[in-house]
Amino acid sequence: EHTFSTVMSWAAADRTARIGRNLKQAWDGEMTEEANALREGLIARCFSQKLGSFTVSPGDEGLDAALLQLPALRLLPPEDPRLHATVDLTRKALDRGGWLLRYQTDDGFGVPKVAFTLCTFWL
């Protein structure tokens, strides 16, 4: 399980619930409940108190620059210090000469050695 995958599942449920509310559909409540459960789980399981940041996966201390999308996806309010800390730590830990790595964990192909350009634009 990767935090970013769960974030995208939450975003899909959240936006689907919003569409359901706007269209006055009976299923909007079910989607709202699912979105809320995913959000609560993300915060409880994927935020490291030790690091003060969201991490690559629950219980892992690795960082993932894809989580720079959290503010744009509106998982938390823009002023939430957990968002700011995640952005700051990601920049500090994954910066390579002004470019960002996506992560520093072995993904089965080894630990990345070059920047993932899109992450730099997300920052």
How is this structure best described in words?
The chain is mainly alpha-helical and 123 residues long. The protein has helices spanning 3-22, 28-46, 70-73, 81-94, 117-122, and strands at 47-48, 53-54, 95-96, 99-100. It is built from five helices and four strands, in the order H-H-E-E-H-H-E-E-H. A two-stranded antiparallel ribbon has the order 1-2. The protein has a two-stranded antiparallel sheet with strand order 3-4. Strand 1 (47-48) and strand 2 form a beta hairpin.
Coarse structural class: mainly alpha
Overall geometry: elongated
- Spell the H/E element sequence: HHEEHHEEH
| Terminal Cα span | 24 Å
Strand content: 5-15%
| Total DSSP E strands | 4
Number of helices: 5
Which spans have pLDDT < 50 for at least 5 consecutive residues? none
Average the pLDDT over all residues and give the rounded result.
94
Strand order in space, largest sheet: 1-2
Largest sheet report: 2 strands, antiparallel
* Cα gyration radius (Å): 16 Å
The level of helicity is 40-55%
